[in-house]
């Protein structure tokens, strides 16, 4: 069966609508009334108010295709075939309504029935929590063969406190030719770190309350929340080697080819990583700005800045010297217009924001790169394995290089960055700004740093915050 991304999305939603679900809109990437989350990172993240009982939904059965951003996957982009910074999570949710014995046969029907996805059952593998006999039984009853059911201790969803429970994950076997590991590698199984067995769907049975006393009490109302990666499923339908060779990304990659000095996608690995970084990041940047976020030096804004600047450097590696990212916004809008018509409608605004940020960074990029290349050369001659914190801070402060960008660039040369030294230089700078501000009575300090840091007393890594929440599904 061949389906494009819009058809896959529609089919998933229609299946659950037929089973009594209400289709919920894809919510803003910027969380509403939720200070614990930097970005909406899953379907269920938009449904917390229903799951914790604060709000009773009109219909306890809901389905959605939710745009999600995960900063903990930034480094994976381009390196694995399956991770994006922004992706869509298809999901179906039961708030105290149906449970395992309904969702499992539905899942199997959607995946394997010719009327729906029509996947070959031989290609599907399912992991489940070893003690969860009920789930195993339900899968067997639905028609899964015993040797396609794999007990895995990791299949327990728990964020420390609150609703928790066993889960079950569905993997699609893309075939031995997709295996990036030696056949006897211990990671070469469904659930391991490999490209052969693609995790397409995660179904969580939240049935316990993890109490502050660290006990697990049965919940009075059991819930279901699930998440299926749209881009991954589309790669299966389009028989694409990775998520990138699909209708969701290819037009972007083609456009980047046009900007470059004759580089072509698919010719060599290092170039391909740059193509993928740009195609991935421009989607996140465009959607995030369209949802009201803006580039800045902290929090969400810093994530946008980091993605944008990383894309500019990726472009540079492909020989692109002119600002190009803003020109890609209409392409993102065109690709996504079926479900997100607002992106194309707001393309001018989004492009303007991107253009100004791009111009700003481009002005210092060459200076930054030559400093960076110079210290890398020095490190090579002296044999040090580390770029010192002061230099990383200068790259950040004077040339606008997010420290993660410096780290990545250095890592390609086998070097690390002195994080502690960087953080110390940052603190010192902030103290200087604060002292100046105090002396000035808060007036007259016009530096960028002051504007960007006025709400923040110290540098906080935002990644940790996200990692904590990354297991939400
Ligand atoms: P993985 O193990 O591949 O990182 P995950 O277990 O972290 O995935 P879940 O939290 O279970 O992912 O999210 C539900 C589904 O969303 C996954 O089964 C996968 O299909 C998809 N997904 C998760 N992270 C990403 C991502 N960064 N890019 C694209 N799809 C993703
Ligand atoms: Mg993950
Ligand atoms: Mg996983
Ligand atoms: Mg998972």
From TrEMBL:
<comment type="function">
    <text>Catalyzes the attachment of alanine to tRNA(Ala) in a two-step reaction: alanine is first activated by ATP to form Ala-AMP and then transferred to the acceptor end of tRNA(Ala). Also edits incorrectly charged Ser-tRNA(Ala) and Gly-tRNA(Ala) via its editing domain.</text>
</comment>
<keyword id="KW-0175">Coiled coil</keyword>
<keyword id="KW-0030">Aminoacyl-tRNA synthetase</keyword>
<keyword id="KW-0862">Zinc</keyword>
<keyword id="KW-0547">Nucleotide-binding</keyword>
<keyword id="KW-0694">RNA-binding</keyword>
<protein>
    <recommendedName>
        <fullName>Alanine--tRNA ligase</fullName>
        <ecNumber>6.1.1.7</ecNumber>
    </recommendedName>
</protein>
<comment type="similarity">
    <text>Belongs to the class-II aminoacyl-tRNA synthetase family.</text>
</comment>
<dbReference type="GO" id="GO:0004813">
    <property type="term" value="F:alanine-tRNA ligase activity"/>
</dbReference>
<keyword id="KW-0067">ATP-binding</keyword>
<keyword id="KW-0648">Protein biosynthesis</keyword>
<keyword id="KW-0820">tRNA-binding</keyword>
<keyword id="KW-0436">Ligase</keyword>
<keyword id="KW-0963">Cytoplasm</keyword>
<keyword id="KW-0479">Metal-binding</keyword>
<feature type="domain" description="Alanyl-transfer RNA synthetases family profile">
    <location>
        <begin position="3"/>
        <end position="473"/>
    </location>
</feature>
